[in-house]
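Figure 2 data, in text form.
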Amino acid sequence: MTSDDPVQLTFLGTRGSGEACNKRHRRHSALLLEGPEGRLMIDCGGDWLSELPRLNPDALFLTHAHPDHSAGLEQGSPCPVYATADTWQQLPDYPLAERRWLTKGQKLIVAGLQVEPVPLYHSLRAPAVGYRIGTAGHNLFYAPDVAALVDPAEDLQGVDLYIGDGSALDRTLLRREQGYPCGHAPVQEQLRWCHNARIGHMLISHCGEKIIADEAAALRILTELAEPLNIKLSIACDSQRLDFG
């Protein structure tokens, strides 16, 4: 990439799609990345309705069309919005001035960051992608809603930081529809993907009821699972900032 300076990540929200919330996980999951040439936002749930002008991203990417990831666009967007054809087909007719289509395998340079959509399993009605984002020789993978990866070894190759789905600690939110995995992969399964891909750092977002009800207990359980795999695991919270790269 164009700069060796770290990218600042801000977790605008870390709450999942359910009703449960608390002070640490109040807003629906959304991520802001401040790259060498601008600000890139991923997802925009209804929490962010009327607030996009304040955030003022230079580009906005959607993982999928579920309202907790897209309903903040109801009044439009101050920047181009990127999404797959599946997502555009499922979205309401929001007043967006600039709609841009993403395709599998496409790699874009936006805000000085390399952005690649990676199809994954989550919902048949609202097909989703994760995003591989690269800067200065480092890569992160962001998948706030995921039931399974299509090819974990390929999808996570070269990734340094995995930011995943904290909706479920067990398999209760995972199901099969028409033979495909849907819903939310347990964090333990996502840890296995990271271990097999030699990823040493995992952050949890899109937090579900069990994390929100007792985050300390959930973190103890997850840490016990992560430590034998040599993975540093933490749970992100709203407004948390960190440098990447």
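Caption note: Residues 81 and 220 are 38 Å apart (CA to CA).
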